[in-house]
Specification:
This protein is 43% helix and 14% strand. It has 247 residues and is α/β, with parallel strands linked by helices. The longest helix is centred in the N-terminal third of the chain and has 26 residues.
């Protein structure tokens, strides 16, 4: 019965998701004239609030946040998050208690009519993934610019969404940024893929958990930092996935 209910909910949710994203893009047009950080705040509060409503009341999805006390109270830092789903890309950049961090996204998303105008104005870091070297250079330069301006950034160290149970290597881009900017890295474990799979039309109701783990200091050797980061995120994410699957 729950499976059938979730399938119906998914259909209705997707209608509200796409129609609502278009509607919000039209309503928020005046925000494009605001400064970068203010635009990110206005769009984050309005669109993020809309998404929270339809996730909760239509799809039956809730978000539990753990360990928010591990996020630095001030200054720039890197949020290095596990990436299992589109869900975290719709949540992390719009979190007020993170200061609306800049996120790395595919440049082709900025070419979406109307909606694509917002990432650039919000100061998101758009990269062209056609060339590995150009993409890496864009990530490093874009993150350095934001971090030096005091704005946190979100990096998905594996570079792409990874299905629950799948293993993909952590890429060198984060190590290069970390080496150059000397800011702490906050690992984020999650279990979103249990409920909202990669490219999945049908989703499952339940509670997704984001867990912010103790930050890694800014002065570790980059390779050591990456080893600690991967171990920390993978072990915590496996624990959260197991916890969700047992319910």
């Amino acid at each position: 019965m729950k499976k059938i209910t979730d399938m119906i909910r998914s259909v209705v949710f997707n209608i509200f998701f796409f129609a609502g994203s278009l509607g919000c893009s039209i309503i928020l047009l005046p925000a494009l004239f605001l400064p970068e950080r203010k635009c990110a705040q206005v769009v984050g509060d309005f669109y993020g609030g809309y998404m929270k409503l339809i996730e909760k009341y239509i799809m039956g999805l809730r978000l539990e946040i753990r360990g928010i006390e591990n996020v630095p109270a001030s200054g720039a830092y890197i949020i290095a998050a596990k990436h299992q789903s589109a869900f975290e890309t719709l949540k992390l950049p719009y979190m007020r208690n993170l200061g609306y961090p800049a996120i790395i996204l595919k440049k082709e998303l900025t070419r979406i009519p109307l909606w694509g105008w917002y990432p650039a104005r919000m100061g998101q870091i758009a990269i062209d993934r056609g060339s590995a070297k150009e993409a890496l250079d864009s990530i490093v330069s874009g993150c350095k610019k934001k971090l030096e301006g005091g704005r946190p950034v979100i990096i998905f160290p594996q570079g792409t969404r990874t299905a629950v149970g799948a293993k993909k290597p952590y890429k060198a881009g984060l190590a290069k940024v970390y080496r150059d900017v000397h800011v702490p890295v906050v690992p984020v474990a999650l279990n979103s893929g249990v409920f909202w799979g990669k490219n999945a039309f049908f989703k499952k109701s339940g509670t997704i958990t984001f867990e912010f783990l103790p930050p890694l200091p800014p002065d570790l050797p980059p390779l050591q930092m990456m080893e600690q980061l991967e171990k920390t995120i993978e072990e915590a994410s496996d624990r959260l996935v197991a916890e969700a699957q047992q319910k």
